[in-house]
Amino acid sequence: MEIIEAQNYDEMSQKAAHLILDKVKRTPSLVLGLATGGTPVGTYQHLVKDYQENQTSYRHVHTVNLDEYVGVEKDHPTSYHTYMKDHLFNHIDIPIQQTHLPDTMAPDLQAECQRYEELIENLGGIDLQLLGIGVNGHIGFNEPGTPFASTTNVVELTASTREKNACYFDNPFDVPKHAVTMGVSTIMKSKQIVLLVSGKQKAHILYKLLSEPTNEQVPASILKHHKNVLIIADREALAELKQNC
Ligand code: F6R
To answer: How many domains, in total, are found in the chain?
Structure first.
């Protein structure tokens, strides 16, 4: 596990974007795992800026997202489908049929979870998975206590995750209670993982992840057992770790 320190959010985002661009240029048919939330927004902005200036092409790239809310239509403003279009897909040359998110409006969600696992497998697996981390240690929507062996599945969101995500909804009661997420083992099969961590609100969980033994109460702690994980964290996020070293 390698840790790169960035001075601030923008430098973290730039470093992540450079890494992704380097991969896309070397492997035009890259399978790129993507995340939503606040953390990767800056990374996507840098990718869009690069596309406008250098036209780096994504014509042969496939993307697979970590998760999607259950019960939110694809074209609803708060869906992760919409988030990805707004922040990235509408601004680069990736064919939209090569972008994949769980279809949470599917009539049979268990079958959809199976289909999503098979899709990733048929694409040859994820080459590079971008991750954020929840203040409770979740990755994707794998909340504390999720078995490390989990595959893509329907999960219930914790009250703290729903509270944190309420800012994206007009009414806090509209925050969905369930989501479909890649499982912990699905994420762990990725060939490379890049975890982005920014801000002082993430300092404690980053410290916990790196200092405590691996356990299912901190889902991200499993990342210590992956062969190729890079953490790009800004100074605020690294503060507690530095204080205690
Ligand atoms: C998003 C996802 C989540 C977020 C995490 C951090 O697709 O799967 O695990 O990465 O909740 O969210 P932010 O970046 O908003 O702090």
So the answer is: 1
